[in-house]
Amino acid sequence: MVDGQVGFHRPENVRRVKVEKNNPIVNSLNKTKKELYPDLAKEQQNRLREIQLEMKEKRKAEEKQKKLDDLEKARIKEERSYDRIMNENNMTSNTDIQATADATAAEEYEDDFF
Questions:
Q1: Plot region of 79 (φ>0 → left; ψ -120 to 50 → alpha; else → beta)
Q2: Phi, psi (rounded to 5 degrees) for 33
Q3: Rounded Cα gap, residues 62 and 52, in angstroms
Q4: What are the phi and psi torsion angles at 23 (to 5°)?
Q5: What is the C-alpha to C-alpha distance for residues 52 and 45, in angstroms, rounded to an integer?
Q6: d(CA 5, CA 100)
């Protein structure tokens, strides 16, 4: 049996109907029919090249975003760091405050602090 051929167990159950072709419709369809014979290998290579370029652009965009994220993390880390605050120039010592018999100098310093 040929591929695509329909078979029946009982040939007497087969009904055959004669169908009339509508020639104007068939002719108009045949006029507009196009048969293309594309170079499938070339189209596949072009498609693979497009996919590779898209993946390359996506990877570059991800790397760029990662760099920006790393810079942002570094900036936030620097903002939260006490390194720029805790240096010798910004610090004062108890010995810097003028000692007096009573604690007025320390109280003035504390009032200034708040």
A1: alpha
A2: -70, 135
A3: 15
A4: -60, -40
A5: 10
A6: 115
In the prediction, which pLDDT does 101 show?
57
> What pLDDT score was predicted for residue 111?
73
The CA radius of gyration of the chain, in Å to the nearest whole number, is 44
Alpha-carbon torsion, ordered 71, 76, 77, 80, to 10 deg: 160
| CB 27, CB 21: distance < 8 Å | no
Output the six-digit token pair for 35: 């048969």
Q: Which pLDDT does position 86 carry in this prediction?
A: 79
10-residue stretch averages of pLDDT, the chain, 114 residues long: 80 86 86 92 97 98 98 94 79 66 68 67
Distance of CA 64 to the CA centre of its chain: 12
The CA angle 105-107-113, to the nearest 5 degrees, is 105
Retrieve residue 61's tokens: 């965009």
* Cα separation, 82 vs 80, whole angstroms: 7
